[in-house]
Amino acid sequence: VIKKDLDPNLSKIKGEKNQLQQVILNLVNNSCDASPRGCEVIIKTRNSEDGGSVIAEFIDSGIGIRPEDLSKLFDPFFTTKDTGKGLGLGLFVSQGIVKQHNADMVVESQWGHGTKVTITFPVARRGEK
């Protein structure tokens, strides 16, 4: 189940649509893989208080990430999935895409209590697409 809490007055960002769709798909898939009780992901978007950024949050109620694994999440080929279930490239590639868009991605998680991934994009300047 995907629940959306999307700001209808969201500022525009400059980005490559297909690449950003891949990031979103990867984050949703990771959330579902980490949610043995059923996949529920909340996607929230909003403008930052100062209006200079667009914030997208992906929140799941899955099993969370072990504290010792948090620092390795963006390493190539790191995975907590069973053999054959993942290559460990999804977050590595997603972080690269996010950085190409001059954005930041932060992961917060508590083992046993789910994960929140926050991506902060700069607002597009006038005339940018």
Short recap of the structure:
Helix content is 25%, strand content 26%.
How many strand segments? 5
User: Mean pLDDT, nearest integer?
Assistant: 89
Total helices: the number is 3
Q: Helices and strands: which structural class?
A: alpha+beta
Estimated helix fraction: 10-25%
Task: Tell me, briefly, the overall form.
Answer: globular
Report the biggest beta sheet as strand number plus sense, adding barrel if it closes. Answer: 5 strands, mixed
Radius of gyration: 15 Å
- State which percent range the strand residues make up: 25-35%
Order of adjacent strands in the largest pleated sheet = 1-2-3-5-4
Q: How widely separated are the two ends?
A: 31 Å
How do the SSEs run, as a string of H and E?
EHEEHHEE
How would you describe this structure to a colleague?
- This protein is of the alpha+beta class and 129 residues long.
- The protein contains three helices and five strands, in the order βαββααββ.
- Strands 1-2-3-5-4 form a five-stranded mixed β-sheet.
- Strand 2 and strand 3 form a beta hairpin.
- The longest helix has 17 residues.
- The chain is globular.
- The model has no long low-confidence stretch (mean pLDDT 89).
